[in-house]
Predict the 3D structure of the following.
Amino acid sequence: MYSGHHKIHYPFLILLVCLAFAACKSVKLKDAEKAHDRQEYTKAADMYNTLYRRTRRKQVEMKAYTAFRSGENYRAAGRQAKALRGYLNARRYGYPDSVVLLRLAQTYQQGGNYKEAEALFRGYLEAYPKSYFAAIGLEGCLFARQQKEYPTRYRIRRAAEWNSARGDFGPAYAPDASALYFTSSRSKDDGLDNSSITGLKPNDIYIIKRDAQGRWGRPDSVSGGINTPWDEGVPTITPDGSTIYYTLAQQGADYDRTVQIYSAARSGEGGWSNGSLVDIMRDSLRMAAHPSMSASGDYLYFVSNIGGSYGGKDIYRVKVSDRSYGSPENLGPDINTPGDEMFPFIDGDSTLFFASDGHAGLGGLDIFKATLDSTGRWHVVNMGQPVNSSADDFGLAVEPKGKNKEEALPDNGVKGVFCSNRGDARGWPHLFHFELPAIYTEIQGYVMDREENPIAGATVRIVGERGPVGQGFVTTRDDGSYKMSVQGDTRYVMLAGASGFLNQYVELKTDTAKQSETYYVDFFLASREKAEGLQNIFYDFDKATLRPESMKSLDELIRILTDNPDIRIELGSHADRKGPDAYNLGLSDRRAKSVVDYLTSRGIAADRLTWKGYGKSVPKTVTAKIAERHDFLKEGDVLTEEFVAPLTEEQQSVCDQLNRRTEFRVIEEELR
């Protein structure tokens, strides 16, 4: 079964092709084959394409073979449009291996033509139901459809201020975020001719420095001995900033170790020493590339094609201790697949970003995020659009938050840089900024008295099911306001209190954080020192029977008593100026008693309650809130019979209603 990554040779077909081109002086098949075997994809692709064009149409086997090989090499070089043309021509001339259909599907997918790709993947799976790459290709097409409807919150923009007209990729931040290192093939005077692998000038490592105000400078080649006439790139810096690891690719017959990891030490201000080989493979025939150092400095992650891996290229790590290295450890099947996994970036010690074409994705290489759980298992998630596209997306680096920055909540955002060759017909990668905007889940509001006057200096305490939030409390400002950051999908209990006031509890459940959200919670604290009115307490006419609409207000009183188990209160009922004094006194006493009866029926201990009917002996004193509602009253007015008598009939009715009231006041504290 052809996996989609292993080479297949058809001796008879190759023999025909070799005979046909034996006399070719300018381009020879054997040279194209050698270039392909050396992974010089751009050079090999152009040679196969030349051979294809020079082959007569009636030589269908030769046309099919060279077309397919050109497609394979253009695809490896990131030239998807030319790769598609090669595969289409291979199918046109009857290339005998059905893998050409799989390659067509993959190339359509990488070009964003998901409808055509899906149809080809389904057809291929009907013939080869165990094909891993057809299965994940189909899954990726379905995932792409889902992403159109439900894109992620990531924001991206091309880093035009840093990119060149060539290739730019492989970013890595300095540990303190004071600089960004990256790989570039931008034009330069030194170095070899264009690479036969990429078609570009050899890569060097560049640096962009950031000043004290956070402004980025312009890219410049790193100083020191790192950059050579060969390809250097994909760096990583140790946590103390003293050592840089990077990939060095040497071309030529004199170099046994063509792609290996090197390191250099800090030398002078911003410079680096000459690089030296990091001998972690102990096998000159195996590549090691794309290093990434963990935040602790204990592990170096990298890419290799060691024998016994899960597929093409896998991600490994080695233990680092005093510049010595342990044995390579494969990260296992949660990360590695029959495809290629490359460009690891370890964020902290338990979050890994990497690129893969072996997990279901949007096309080509996609960037994945893996988190390590307490059992040692990795949980892998595709980062989705717009970070990923149908093109090759890889080499993501998260910007360090810095040692002096406040520790972010779990749902706060991140930003950094990644690479993609989207929108570049040549297949050359470029740098992109990405940002996941922080999700701020906040609770804010006011602490006021029951007349809605702000209480400055009140304390609002909060405890969540995951523990305290911050220091566990905030203090209200002069206007009585407060604000605190919390987590999504969490239950909280809040308590507001202030000197001279009763406590108030509130329970709140925040939703799963999908976007920034603010919850508003206001507290209205009852006084410990003066009587507080109970709003909307109604009785049947000329009776002490509570009406049903009174229960909501009384239930609020039950909550106050529950929140403050240390108090004993008096329920007082008041009448208006109408009727005989003795009658009003008796009616108000019975009404106060009916409130006590309701409270005890709801579980409030009788010894915490007493009652008294005041009749019309204690007329209402106008508060600021009442004065705002009634322009004929001012704060401090006392609604005695003498005050009410000269008013209009309508105004008298308002005063009578204000005088008919039920209140409670604290008469004893610190009950045991």
Observations:
- Residues 155-436 form a domain with the Neuraminidase fold (CATH 2.120.10.30).
- Confidence is low (pLDDT under 50) at residues 1-25, 403-411.
